[in-house]
Amino acid sequence: MLISVYLDNVQINRYTGHVRDEVKQLLQSANLRMTAQRLAILDAIELEGKHQDAEFIIQASRRRVGSLSRQAVYDNLNALVAAGIIRRIEPAGRAALYETRVGDNHHHLICRQCHFAVDIDCVVGIAPCLKPSDDHGFAIDEAEVVYWGLCPSCLKIQASHNEQNHVH
């Protein structure tokens, strides 16, 4: 199965069980060893569902490597985020989500009801996609935008619910 990691807009691919040199180099350049725990965490994020919270990643990682402490997963998530190998998304009022797509300043669309999240590429321009009216002297390198709404599945449920209420 193919895993894609994005770094500086370059897609780096590897296959489960056969780590390609690029991923090893990403870890080495961040002074991180390639461990079964880290690979399980990366696999859990990429293969079992992008934009997942730490609880999901803990369970998915444990299925891959067996015994794995919560603290070890959190420590590895923090190390991978700090190294720029994964990205932490912190939508308001929700648990942090993690993804392997980094370095391209994309945005997210999140369902208010079921919390499903998808990537939204920048519509026009280059990073940071949005230009503030006043930068206050900052050297801005990223804009984070979260679009909120209802996903197609939740819209269908809502429409069905509304239809049932109008019938009675």
Outline the structure in words:
37% of the residues lie in helices and 18% in strands. With 168 residues, the chain is α+β, with helices and mostly antiparallel strands. Helix 2 packs across helix 3 (54-65) and helix 3 (54-65) packs across helix 4. Strand 3 and strand 4 form a beta hairpin. The relative contact order is 0.12.
What is the element layout, followed by pairings?
Blueprint: E1 2-7, E2 10-15, H1 21-29, H2 36-47, H3 54-65, H4 70-82, E3 87-89, E4 97-99, E5 107-111, E6 117-120, E7 146-149, H5 152-167
Parallel strand pairs: 5-7
Antiparallel strand pairs: 1-2, 3-4, 5-6
Helix pairs in contact: 2-3, 3-4
Work out the radius of gyration: 19 Å
CATH superfamily of the largest domain: Winged helix-like DNA-binding domain superfamily/Winged helix DNA-binding domain
**Mean pLDDT, all residues:** 81
| Helical coverage, percent range | 25-40%
Topology-level CATH name of the largest domain? Arc Repressor Mutant, subunit A
Per DSSP, what share of the residues sits in E-state strands of 2 or more residues? Answer: 15-25%
Shape: flat
Order of helices and strands: EEHHHHEEEEEH
Q: Using the 3D structure, state the CATH architecture of the largest domain.
A: Orthogonal Bundle
Strand order, sheet with most strands = 6-5-7
